[in-house]
Amino acid sequence: MKFLSPLPGSVRSAPDLVALRLREAIFTGELRPGDQLPPEIDLARGFGIALMTVRVALNALKDMGLLATVRGRNGGTFVTNDVGERIAEAARQSPLTKVELRDLTDWRRAISGEACFLTASRASAEDRVAIQTAGDNFDQLLPKFPDVRFADARLHSLIAETSKSENLLRGEIEIQRILTEVILAIEKPRGSKHLTSFSHDPIIKAIAQGNGNAAREAMLNHAEDTFTWVTLLL
């Protein structure tokens, strides 16, 4: 699990950082609705922190409705099945303005565009197969929400991860987290197949061909398509 790694030094408290890592994993589709988290002791070891710190973070996410604990022989901590609705409810309390969405899109063009450019030259054959598989998974889930949104975020996060740039990956994860909130907060998303699935294909094709410039251009077009689509629905 990519989210499970030692925490860096930060002005944030350790419980806040753990909660942030887990939220990002949920919002970007690394942890899906119904998925079981590793045991608390494994989380503590993976993050390099005390068990009590993990419990504080988990309790915070349970209070938000993102996680739930099941008791008994097959129990554990799970991502709630209705996590998409919980995310949407929270996001509707403070929706993005069109100006903020434009700013997010400009940031996305810089981060995601460069990630696609680098991935085209740095991806191994195995990486390219994984990206194609993630794209196929997205298409198969259309138009099922929120699953398709999580699959979309996972695809873009995977592309950024394959760029081999930690800073681009962190930026992409944050962008996808915000986009998940924005898109899931829309009451009845429409037109997602035409505007979203259609524009993934050029990105994946350019990466498969090792064409960085084409991959970046396809990503910029995709970012603008998403901006147009979301703006029309706000």
UniProtKB/TrEMBL annotation:
Coiled coil: none annotated. Residues 12-82 form the HTH gntR-type domain. One of its GO terms (molecular function) is DNA binding. It holds the Pfam family FCD. The keyword Lipoprotein does not apply. InterPro entries: GntR_C, TF_FadR/GntR_C, Tscrpt_reg_HTH_GntR, WH-like_DNA-bd_sf, WH_DNA-bd_sf. It comes from the Bacteria. This is HTH gntR-type domain-containing protein.
